[in-house]
Write a structure and sequence with these properties.
The chain has 405 residues and is α/β, with parallel strands linked by helices. It has 17 helices and seven strands. Helix content is 55%, strand content 9%.
Length: 405
């Protein structure tokens, strides 16, 4: 194999140790083991500098690669490698062999680096992912409260569509106090729920004891604490966006379903689209495009690839939002695909469209232009007319077409 990197190193990373192998022109192959403590990693850095190493390859092992990358990134070109892409021959796997294999692949130019965003994006990503986890925790606590209410024979969720709306919250607060009867609590309802007052009286006639009240109070207290943390996170995210990515944030918000999710998209894929050669590379990295599955000249159906799970998840959610927004191109696209390909595939396709829009908006710094709900029909006007004419002819009709004024 041709040598592309003159002096390189392969690092086999673990939680407590890192095995380093160096090879190159004018240096003897050497393998050393270091601990992952900061002082020992600094000794690793000095050793690599002494041997004039220029490139380093290491596997993306959990979160254990991060402290090593933070120390080495300013002095070397560090290539983070997907472990699936560098598997060695089975039966010969040791830490020493792994580091040596990584070094050989690196010097031959056979490793492909993973996308590592800059520090500001990594920090923003930590905030948005933590916020998402906390929102999921709030949803879990609300489900727990609903479960306790069911255990107390209180069927509030059978009558109210949202038991944590204005009416539901007031009723739950009175349930905790235990002062009002079911008829009096039903009078606390507002809006559309007032039409179901008789059903509410029946639903609230349960057996709430001290144990149920204690559990619900604990969950409500937990929800309040989490929501306070979420509020602080949102403030911190807003500050970072205003300082570093205000222009990109405003551009992404012009896409109808994106709005407040623009910060999540920026955190997951960054703002420098030059890192991706084309929108197809970005789509593949995000896991929003089908992989190739071909054998013996036959192409088989391919599922979406393993990409950025967080970005893929938010794009699917945005596709759901887009499918319900009237008078938009994205809704028309969803409806045109859902009937032929099914709802799930249509969602992935719309999520893919949103991702491509984000790519072009960030790359060329232009706002989103709404094409309208009739865009697809206008593009396929001739084919649609021909199709309907054929169907009517088959049914025994003679049709004369005339353009409307």
């Amino acid at each position: 194999m041709d040598i592309i990197v003159e002096r390189g190193a392969g690092l086999d990373v673990h939680k407590e140790t890192v095995v380093a192998c160096i090879m190159g022109t004018g240096i003897k192959k050497e393998i050393r083991t270091f601990s992952t403590m900061t002082n020992d990693l600094m000794r690793l850095k000095i050793w690599l500098n002494e041997n004039r190493i220029t490139h380093i390859a290491m596997e993306s092992t959990g979160v254990y690669w991060k402290p090593i990358f933070n120390i080495l990134e300013d002095a070397f070109e560090v290539i983070l490698v997907n472990a699936r892409h560098v598997k060695n021959v089975p039966g010969r796997k040791t830490d020493v062999k792994d580091s040596e294999w990584l070094c050989k692949l690196l010097r031959s130019g056979l490793v492909r680096g993973s996308f590592i965003p800059p520090k500001e994006i990594r920090e923003l990503r930590d905030l948005t992912r933590y916020k998402r986890k906390l929102i999921q925790s709030v949803a879990s606590e609300k489900q727990r409260i609903e479960k306790i209410l069911e255990d107390a024979n209180i069927k509030l969720s059978c009558v109210a569509s949202d038991i944590f709306g204005v009416s539901g919250t007031r009723i739950i607060e009175e349930l905790m106090k235990g002062d009002l009867k079911a008829e009096e609590m039903a009078e606390l309802s507002k809006g559309k729920l007032r039409r179901k007052k008789d059903d509410l009286k029946e639903a609230l006639a349960g057996h709430m004891d001290t144990h149920h009240a204690f559990m619900i109070k604990a969950s409500l207290k937990h929800i309040k604490a989490i929501e306070e943390i979420i509020s602080n996170l949102e403030q911190k995210i807003k500050e970072m966006i205003d300082i570093h990515y205000k222009e990109e944030y405003e551009l992404l918000q012009t896409i109808p379903p994106v709005k407040d999710s623009a910060s999540v998209i920026i955190a997951e894929m960054g703002v420098n689209m030059d890192l991706f050669p084309s929108e197809m590379h970005l789509s593949s990295w995000a896991g929003m495009s089908p992989g190739n599955n071909e054998s013996a000249g036959k192409k088989k159906p391919g599922t979406t690839t393993n990409g950025n799970k967080c970005l893929k998840s938010i794009l699917t959610e945005l596709a759901w939002v887009a499918s319900r927004m009237k008078g938009t191109y994205l809704r028309a696209k969803y409806q045109s695909l859902a009937g032929r390909r099914g709802k799930k595939k249509a969602l992935i396709a719309v999520g893919h469209k949103i991702l491509i829009m984000c790519y072009h908006l960030l790359k060329y710094k232009v706002p989103y232009k709404e094409l309208g709900a009739n865009y697809l029909d206008t593009r396929k006007k001739d084919r649609i007319v021909k199709s309907y004419l054929k169907r009517l002819t088959n049914l025994g009709f003679t049709v004369t077409l005339k353009e409307a004024a």
